[in-house]
Specification:
The structure holds three protein chains of three kinds. By secondary structure, chain A is of the alpha+beta class. In chain A, 63% of the residues lie in helices and 12% in strands. In chain A, helix 1 packs antiparallel against helix 3, helix 7 packs antiparallel against helix 12 and helix 10 runs antiparallel to helix 13.
Chain lengths: 639, 157, 175
């Protein structure tokens, strides 16, 4: 009964989404207040019904109702309760349900916080969101209904994919989705503005906080995903350039570009058509990512479902949404132009460069992800493009960005006189250069051009971001108190510096070795000694495992003990590697069991990863910066 | 300079930079692009001599041999027509098993041996990678149709 | 045409690539045996190693050959539907237990039900390879003259059965 209630609630949500998608748009066109006012009520109702559907599916998982096909394929009786809940979004159907739930949540939030906007504008925004939601609900109900029954019901389920039985996965997709879906708000604002033809700066100010919120969730979602991949996929990498990861990083680059471009549009009324295009692209790339993942068009370790009908449906949906948006853009954009000029040395220039480089970064990822498909389509052979290419290609846009951030941050709008800029930046620049040259050699014992440039850029960004808050803190003469927006920017850029430092040092100084180890054996790696003390059998709730106990010492002194495991999940009979990680703020020691070579001999992978925590820490600081920025006074209160 | 001309200059510089970057990127792509090549074609000598590529097939039952006490490993991979010896040193992926599908990245060393630097096993718990499946399917067709053409006159199994 | 229509054109091009890409979806592997004679085989029965079962069990009948294993979640998923088919007497189903453990497999059939007219035990996967199986579950539809007329990769459902299998069975009856 419960699953049928969920199914029915979804159908009701769909009809409400249709009302929300059609009536307010017509109302806004005709100036009909009654029709426009449908929007908020419909959005609230939609959220209620989708929440009911979501609760029903969760209930079916908690009750282990294997008569529901989705539950039977992704759960089992012995699955721990917390994973029964996260299994709800552990596969295709349920993750779509989560997607529509979050979308409804965003819509209601927009409805609440848009009361001060002109009624027609708010109605258009909510209408566009309603249309998008209609598309996703149709997709769920027609191709991916999670409530389908299975008769007769199996006695036990097929279990959740062991890779997904992890706390990281419980929270990573929801956050990522909040980000993806959040870009639909920026998209809806852009479409609404183009529909009304009223594209002044106010539009940019209204969009900015929403975009920043979406961006900050996406940032955290990606960082958590990377962290999960690091300890769960078993081999110590933190980014694999897997199509699914690429699908999340492309909207991130676009969203980051959008945030910066919105700043120019809001402050100076420039780049309007460009900002619109970015708002369209950021959301389009989120959709495209969904398409790539759901259609199985690119095979990936994450591919949830490979079903061509789903692919066609999403492609059609993608086509309607993006073509519609781009046609509207082609009509409206030529009417936009701005007279305001700016000098070569000005904040506008640097923000423009930032935008160009971030778009190039997204384009590179796009190209690398889709080229294998293109080769296949043109029958040129089956190729794959490896991480080394992405790593090299990413340097080209990202290195210049990391060098330019500091200058851009300290440049004034319109025109910046070169001299004071030079004076301001001289100290951080000199310090950064000194650190960049010295630190890699002194601490890690090896010099290198790329390491030095990377370290230098990282410290250069960090120092430059601290200057403004520091001056404000010291209440230096002639400095006004720092605004929340300024502080947010400084914090976010400081995060970029931390992140850059992490990447630079991890890629330069990771020490990795694969060893055959017998119990009692000791191996040396990066100045640490690792002793495999014992191997024993361990019994988990739904798996059995072989656990190694590895003692780590440095110069004879005890550092820590880790327990890497090799697990075999009982239902699916899969082997999984559970790494043992000794984490410290400035390094991780990563130990993973490979395979059994002899009686008590195992192959063991041992890695020393300096500063790897800084990668995720940096991402969280960036997100924190976004959080600070949206609390700025000027976003409170209305138009 | 007027702001407009300044801007033109900046745009010009940016475009130039992008062009250089694009050329560099595409060249790097050339080195990092790996083709998937059928085992039979590799055995017949049809493979890029001095660059990495991918081969895939089934790990021949009973062919996995380890050097005692080291991580060096040898096995044969088959596309059901030809078999190719593969050498690999390192830790194997969780889903590597005899008789199962596998994809190896690497290049040919002398004496017809493929030296792998990366081994990937099945792409999910039920099915093998699509390239491997397609390659196997092709040769099963040849067998059932009684065709044994091509330069690689290997024996299946 | 203004420069503002360029994004639109770029996207149109991309859609073209995707449409072609979808038609060659990687999950659609060409079926090597399609319209060919199904491989003849004779292997030990799952229930009794001394009894041989194989193509003789369904000779001169339209039948299904279903490749399954206890380690495959998709097999569990389709098992209910196979039982329904067997109960309805729609078609004889021959089960090929592939690369599996005999004890586990027998326990599976005992607890979940046995939809098969006979089950072969293909421990080393040799028969599966002859059939061009590249995973489980896979289901082959065999004509009464022993020709493979359809192959389905992934769990079988009633929807797929009605859409892909039934028309072929009707067609082969008319022949």
């Amino acid at each position: 009964m419960i699953p049928e209630i969920g199914h029915f609630a979804l159908i009701l949500a769909l009809s409400l989404a249709l009302c929300q998608g059609i009536l307010p748009l017509i109302g806004a066109h005709r100036g009909n207040v009654a029709m426009m006012s449908v929007a908020r009520a419909a959005a609230d109702g939609q959220l209620l019904f989708i929440a009911i559907a979501f609760a029903c599916l969760t209930w079916s998982f908690l009750q282990s109702d294997f008569s529901v096909a989705y539950v039977a394929s992704h759960s089992q009786l012995a699955l721990p309760t917390v994973y029964k809940i996260s299994a709800v979004w552990g596969a295709h159907e349920g993750s779509l349900l989560l997607w529509v739930l979050l979308m409804a949540g965003w819509t209601v939030a927009v409805g609440r916080f848009s009361r001060d906007l002109p009624a027609e504008f708010a109605a258009r925004v909510l209408g566009v969101l309603g249309l998008l939601s209609t598309g996703f609900l149709l997709f769920t109900l027609l191709t991916s209904n999670p409530f389908l029954r299975l008769t007769p019901a199996p006695v036990d389920g097929a279990d959740l994919n062991p890779l997904l039985q992890d706390p990281g996965l419980a929270i990573h997709p929801p956050l990522l989705y909040v980000g993806y879906v959040g870009f639909s708000v920026a998209f809806a604002f852009a479409i609404a503005a183009m529909l009304s033809g009223d594209l002044d700066q106010r539009w940019a100010r209204w969009t900015r906080p929403w975009t920043t919120v979406a961006w900050l969730f996406l940032t955290i979602g990606i960082a958590l995903g990377s962290w999960w991949a690091y300890y769960e996929l078993g081999w110590g990498g933190w980014w694999f350039w897997d199509p699914v990861e690429n699908a999340s990083i492309m909207p991130w680059f676009m969203g980051t570009a959008l945030i910066h471009s919105l700043a120019v549009t809001e402050k100076r009324g420039l780049f309007k058509s460009w900002t619109l295009l970015l708002a369209i692209s950021a959301f389009s790339l989120s959709l495209l990512g969904t398409f790539l993942v759901r259609s199985g068009i690119l095979v990936s370790v994450h591919a949830f479902a490979t079903d061509p009908t789903r692919g066609y449906f999403i492609l059609a949906f993608l086509g309607i949404v993006i073509v519609g948006a781009l046609v509207l853009y082609a009509i409206r954009a030529p009417q936009l132009d701005s007279q305001a000029g700016f000098h070569l040395l000005s904040r506008e220039t640097f923000l423009l460069l930032n935008n160009v480089l971030l778009v190039v970064a997204a384009a590179i990822v796009f190209y690398g992800t889709l080229t294998p498909l293109l080769y296949d389509v043109l029958r040129l052979g089956k190729i794959s493009i490896g991480p080394p290419w992405f790593e090299f290609a990413m340097l080209l846009p990202l290195l210049p960005i990391s060098l330019l951030i500091a200058v851009g941050m300290h440049s004034a709008w319109r025109a910046q006189a070169p001299k004071p800029l030079l004076q301001r930046l001289r100290l951080p620049a000199l310090l950064a250069i000194a650190i960049g040259i010295l630190v890699p050699g002194l601490i890690y014992g090896r010099f290198g051009l790329l390491v030095s440039i990377g370290t230098m850029a990282a410290f250069w960004i960090m120092f430059a971001s601290l200057q403004e808050p520091w001056r404000s803190f010291r209440r230096a003469k002639g400095t006004p108190a720092i605004t929340r927006a300024m502080l947010g920017m400084s914090v976010a850029h400081f995060g970029v510096g931390i992140f850059a430092l992490g990447i630079t040092l991890v890629s330069a100084f990771t020490v990795e070795s694969d060893q055959a180890m017998q119990t009692g054996a000791t191996v040396q790696n990066a100045g640490y000694s690792f002793e495999l003390r014992e191997l024993r059998d361990v019994q988990g709730p739904n798996y059995q495992a072989i656990e190694g106990r590895v003692e780590i010492r440095k110069d004879g002194e005890f550092v820590g003990e880790v327990r890497p495991q090799k697990r075999q999940y009982l239902v699916q009979q899969n082997w999984m590697t559970e790494a043992g990680i000794d984490a410290h703020w400035n390094r991780d020691l990563f130990i993973a069991l490979g395979d059994q070579l002899g009686n008590d001999t195992w192959s063991v992978r041992i890695q020393y990863k300096p500063m790897i925590r800084f990668i995720w820490l940096g991402a969280f600081i960036m997100a924190l910066g976004g959080l600070i920025a949206i609390t700025d006074r000027r976003y409170r209160g209305g138009a | 300079m007027t702001p407009r001309r300044q801007r033109m200059l900046a745009v010009g510089l940016a475009l130039g930079g992008i062009a250089i970057a694009a050329v560099l990127t595409l060249r790097a792509l050339d080195d990092n692009m790996m083709f998937f090549i059928d085992v039979s074609d590799v055995v017949a000598g049809e493979y890029p001599a001095d660059r990495n590529f991918r081969v895939g097939g089934l790990v021949v039952d009973g062919s996995v041999e380890r050097e005692p006490g080291s991580l060096e490993l040898r096995f044969r991979v088959t596309d059901l027509r030809c078999e190719l010896p593969v050498r690999y040193t390192g830790v194997l992926p969780d889903l590597f098993r005899e008789g199962q599908g596998v994809v190896a990245h690497g290049r040919m060393a002398g004496e017809g041996e493929f030296v792998a630097d990366t081994i990937l096993a099945k792409h999910d718990e039920n099915y093998m990678a699509p390239e491997v499946a397609e390659s196997l399917a092709e040769h099963v067709t040849e067998q059932t149709a009684g065709l044994r053409q091509g330069s690689g006159e290997c024996n299946p199994q | 045409m203004s420069k503002f229509t360029l994004p639109l054109l770029g996207f149109a091009l991309l859609v073209g690539v995707f449409v072609i890409g979808l038609t060659m979806d990687p999950s659609r592997i060409p079926s090597p045996l399609l319209q060919q004679a199904a491989p003849e085989f004779s292997i030990p029965s799952l229930h009794d190693p001394d009894v041989l079962v194989g193509s003789d069990n369904y000779r001169n009948q339209v039948a299904l050959v279903n490749i399954w294993a206890t380690w495959c979640p998709g097999c569990r998923q389709e098992h209910g539907f196979l039982l329904e088919l067997a109960k309805e007497g729609a078609i004889p189903i021959f089960g090929l237990n592939w690369r599996d453990d005999r004890v586990e497999a027998l326990r599976w059939l005992q607890t979940l039900g046995d939809p098969y007219i006979a089950s072969g035990f293909d421990a080393d996967g040799r028969v599966g390879i002859d059939w061009g199986a590249y995973g489980a579950p896979e289901t082959f539809l065999i004509d009464s003259d022993g020709t493979v007329i359809h192959k389905h990769i992934a769990p079988l459902t009633r929807e797929i059965w009605e859409r892909d299998f039934l028309p072929l069975i009707a067609g082969s009856g008319a022949k």
